[in-house]
Design a protein that fits this description.
14 helices; mainly alpha; single chain
Amino acid sequence: MSLHTVAKEPFIRIAKREGCTVRRSILVYFLGLLGGLLVSAVIIMLITGLNPLEVYASMLRGTLDFEAIAQGKWNKLWYALRDTALLLCIGVGLAPAFKMRFWNIGAEGQMLMGGLVSAACMINLSDLPNPLLLLIMAAASIAAGALWGFLPAVFKAKFGTNETLFTLMMNYIAIQAVELAVDIFDKKQSHSVGVINLLTEKGWMPDLLGQDYLWNLIIAAALAVCMYVYLKYTKHGYEISVVGDSVNTARYAGINVKKVIVRTMLISGAICGLAGFVEVSAISHTISKSTAGGRGFTAIIVAWLAKFNTFVMALISLLLVFLDKGAVAISSDFGLNDYISQMITGVILFFILGCEFFTGYRVIFRRKAGSAGKAPAEGENA
């Protein structure tokens, strides 16, 4: 018996991929989307007995109703672009904090506080000219969001507190603050503010070129471009990247880690607060505890899937909005339970999220005996 036993190579090994080309990424995500559609088709046939192609056509009509577009009605598309812009704003806000590995899941509260001060300005400063009022609302929302991001950052930098728990608790405080403010603003004691300045439209974002939501797209696009440049080409962006990779390396390089944490969270919170301003001034024109609508948590998916690339975030945001609108259309067209339609979109999203594994890692199968000295074929590594 040999004194040296050779360990048997496992049949499957997983190794980190040293970079994934754009072509491979597109292929992986396309296959993931196709797989999600196929599995969803099986679920549709088993549970509902409907033709999957008809269901998918209904999903498409949730955003792109070609019959309505042929008649000059672009409402569904504009609503989808409006929601995409808002989700993109929050995703852009999360990008610098997440790249720094500061798990800021307080975007929900930061957006609520931004929306709250915007609503307060609309109610109490309605005598001001509308352009001036909008500027004050935007500045106040940015400040409120920045403050809501500043507090957990300071405690993290000074005392090493857990930012996830801290920001979650701040979300609950923001919800209760909005509830309290609604009761104060509401003169009829109906526990609802209603549409603010409905007759005068003071504090409402004006239309641009005849479109109500064009400003939303411009703001979101400007934020995406600025954040891309900030993270990729500035000294601050470099410091964020270094701190995210290794705090010890950052300290060794002479970077003030505490300062970077606080500064980055101020920026993240400010952008999420601005998203609250966009929601109140340009979309709902009111404030309630449901103003954020869970978008702060959905934006986490946007930021991670895009790997903090703000241009890719725009595509991910559009996809998520498309799936959400599609779920609503399915429920309406076929009378399905909301849970079934959401399950279908959830399966598709699950497959897309799973693509993250195949772009970051490769699966290596054991080579046959006698081929140890040969280079692995292209098809052997997935």
